[in-house]
Design goal:
The complex is a heterodimer of chains A (340) and B (290). Helices cover 27% and strands 28% of the residues of chain A. By secondary structure, chain A is α/β, with parallel strands linked by helices. Chain A folds into 2 domains: 198 residues, HUPs (Rossmann fold, 3-Layer(aba) Sandwich), CATH 3.40.50; 117 residues, 3-Layer(aba) Sandwich (Rossmann fold), CATH 3.40.50.1220. In chain A, the strands form 3 sheets. A 7-stranded parallel beta sheet of chain A has the order 5-9-4-1-2-3-10, sandwiched between helices. A 5-stranded parallel beta sheet of chain A has the order 13-12-14-15-16. In chain A, helix 8 links the parallel strand 14 and strand 15. The N and C termini of chain A lie far apart (59 Å). Chain B has one domain: Rossmann fold. Chain B is built from 8 helices and 13 strands. In chain B, the strands form 2 sheets. In chain B, strands 9-8-7-10-6-1-4-5-11 form a 9-stranded mixed beta sheet, sandwiched between helices. A two-stranded antiparallel sheet of chain B has the order 2-3. In chain B, strand 7 and strand 8 form a beta hairpin. The longest helix of chain B has 17 residues. The relative contact order of chain B is 0.16. The mean pLDDT of chain B is 92. The chains are: A alpha/beta (340), B alpha/beta (290). At the A-B interface, helix 3, helix 4, strand 5, strand 7 and strand 8 of A face helix 3, helix 4, strand 7, strand 8 and strand 9 of B. Strand 11 of chain A pairs antiparallel with strand 9 of chain B, so a sheet runs across the interface.
């Protein structure tokens, strides 16, 4: 009762998704602050090593469901199990990754439990609240913080009256931190066969083509990112060239991805991936809050923009006012000449 | 054979992708009035998929429903110009302040009245990006859901086959009808307006819009009843007030902070050779690159 729950996503490779491990790390801190336990949910065909992975994050209880209908993920069987566990366990907080799985599952769960859900949070904190109208006091609520309305404002959302307080968070937003194992987690096995109904299995997967992850922005120390200001897919080639000589990866803003300049998997920001490289080179990026949410913890930021007043310059260590078509080739040439 | 009813859930949104400098007030807040209202992009893809389904089936009706103020009827007309058969506007002050849960409740009550066999909606709306209303509406209706749809592979009177776009690939699923499908922005863009339909439906109006018109449309509407866009209030969809608006919304906005950027101390450079060299030298010296 009143514990913090994290839904752990199982990847194609039968490991626990990084975003889930990041949420376990954050969940543990929230649980410690509230003086409650951290519980994890794992639903797959064979749990195998995943339980060992989860143990390393200081989890108190792991709810395990193993059944052939649970992998690959389908909405209704997973939904049914989460619903049943939450109705019995009455969590205080429930966290899901903001992935194609979490964003499919969490809203449906919130709907059946009639509780509040905030998508794509960039920060989660515990805090109090006093209702202005009634004067009613609420202690230890989950502050669900996210940019809103095109990123021009930052909203703090709370769910004072309903439980669980639910939130989804993108990969990379929370820091992944293992915790020394104090005691073995209690494993609770879910009796899947008795919970699943025939109508939970009506949607069938006919075919899947899942590729190995090609781009790993999170692991890259240097990122050369482009925005809508890059202007074209052809111009993005310049960014790739610079990234190649520096040994980095190419990232993009949502506007650039929407315009077709870069692949979706390269998107950085609130609705993409969050990165913390040692060097972030922002090319033709104005710097909307949603984008900054995904990169403002970079150690060094260079902004290259024709607009000297681009908002991103405010968080940049170097603000180069100029055309990237001019600046990038010069950087490449200088580096080739002077690096060891 | 039964004629399938296909329903599209659409939303009129402020165009948050193009928040220019004019749209920002001096205090950092957004001047909503300065933002154009547009058809939510993913919802246009959903309309296209609905029209494709109709094309494949040969005989089906495509309806569009939207929730919003009177002006949201604009996107119903837009849908009709592009091929939808009929539209419904869900409008009532009691909906104001609804979060995704209250919104999906209201929509599900209206959907029950229409009783469709198949629902398409956009994956998410650009003003909130939550992607929650689709799955929540499906749950309220006890429909299965297929999210992240990119392609309509096949449809008949009892089943639909959809290709989904996931982070690392694609997945093809089959579902019996009824089902709710949320459509990804990477799906086929919506077909253009049909000139004949624009001519035929340019005077399509809701009751409230008619009252606001200076011209008298009575004769025209008696002549052409198909011009009437249905307008539904809370009472007309048998919704319970307790589940609507702020009261029915479990999420509350505690506070809103305007984004104020603390200016970091930075080096301002140009594209001149000497400046670029200085930049690169700094980076090499500090071993950020090298």
């Amino acid at each position: 009762m009143k514990n913090v729950f994290v839904y752990c996503e199982v990847t194609e490779e039968k490991t626990i998704a990084d975003v889930s491990l990041e949420l376990l790390s954050k969940g543990r801190k929230l649980a410690e602050q509230l003086g409650v336990q951290l519980e994890a949910l794992v639903f797959t065909d064979v749990a195998g090593n995943t339980l060992k992975t989860i143990q390393n994050f200081g989890v108190d209880v792991i709810h395990v469901a193993e059944h052939k209908e649970l992998f690959p993920y389908r909405t209704l069987p997973h939904f049914r199990l989460v619903q049943s566990i939450f109705e019995n366990e009455k969590p205080e907080i429930a966290l899901f990754g903001a992935t194609s799985v979490g964003r499919d599952l969490a809203p449906r769960v919130a709907s059946v439990l009639r509780c509040g859900l905030t998508a794509d949070c960039t920060s989660l904190e515990i805090g109090d609240h006093v209702d202005n109208k009634t004067g009613q006091e609420f202690k230890n609520l989950l502050y669900q913080i996210r940019p809103a309305f095109g990123g021009n404002i930052i909203a703090t959302i709370i769910n004072p009256n309903t439980r669980p307080q639910m939130a989804t968070v993108r990969e990379g937003v929370m820091k992944l931190e293992e915790a020394p194992i104090k005691k073995q987690a209690v494993i609770k096995t879910i009796n899947v066969a008795t919970l699943l109904k025939p109508e939970d299995l009506v949607v069938e997967i006919l075919d899947r083509h899942i590729e190995a992850q090609k781009v790993n922005l999170k692991a890259s120390g240097i990122i050369v990112a482009g925005g809508y200001g890059v202007g074209s897919k052809e111009n993005f080639k310049l960014l790739s060239d610079l990234a190649a000589v520096l040994g980095g990866e190419v990232g993009a803003t949502r506007a650039a991805v929407d315009a077709g300049y870069a692949e979706h998997e390269r998107q950085i920001g609130q609705t993409g991936v969050t990165v913390r490289p040692k060097l972030y080179i922002a090319c033709g990026i104005s710097g909307a809050v949603q984008h900054r949410a995904g990169m403002d913890q970079s150690a060094k930021i260079i902004s290259i923009n024709t607009d000297p007043d681009a908002p991103i310059n405010a968080i940049a260590d170097y603000a180069v006012t100029g055309d990237l078509q001019e600046v990038l080739p010069k950087m490449i040439a200088y580096y080739k000449k002077h690096s060891k | 054979m039964k004629k399938l009813k296909i329903l599209v859930l659409a939303k009129q949104v402020p165009d948050t992708r193009n928040v220019g400098k004019d749209a920002m007030k001096a205090d950092g807040t957004v001047n909503r009035g300065a933002l154009p209202a547009i058809y939510n992009p993913d919802d246009l893809c959903a309309l296209e998929m609905a029209l494709e389904a109709k094309d494949q089936l040969g005989d089906a009706e495509v309806y569009v429903i939207t929730m919003g103020p009177t002006r949201a009827a604009e996107i119903i007309r837009e849908s009709i110009y592009r091929g939808a058969d009929q539209g419904f506007l869900l409008t009532d002050r009691k909906f104001a302040g609804s979060d995704t849960l209250a919104t999906s409740y209201a929509i599900s009550k209206a959907v029950e009245k229409i009783n469709p066999d198949l629902i398409f909606c956009g994956l998410q709306a650009i003003d909130g990006d939550t992607a929650q209303v689709g799955p929540q509406t499906a749950e309220k209706l006890h429909f299965p859901q297929i999210t992240y749809a990119e392609e309509l592979v096949d449809i008949n009177n009892s089943k639909i086959v959809i290709k989904r776009r996931l982070e690392r690939g694609v997945e093809t699923v089959i579902s019996p009808l009824p089902v709710l499908v949320t459509v990804h922005g990477s799906a086929t863009p919506c077909r253009a307006r049909n000139a004949k339909r624009v001519m035929q439906y340019k005077y399509a109006r809701t009751v409230t819009e008619l009252q606001e018109e200076t011209r008298d449309y009575t004769d025209l509407f008696n002549d052409r009843p198909y011009l009437k866009i249905e307008e539904w209030s809370v009472d007309m969809i048998d919704a319970n007030d307790a589940f609507l608006g702020l009261t029915g919304s479990p999420t509350k906005v505690k506070n809103i902070d305007n984004v104020v950027l603390a200016q970091k101390e930075n080096k301002v450079l140009t594209s001149k050779d000497a400046d670029v060299e200085e930049l690169m030298l700094d980076l090499l010296k500090s071993r950020v690159i090298g």
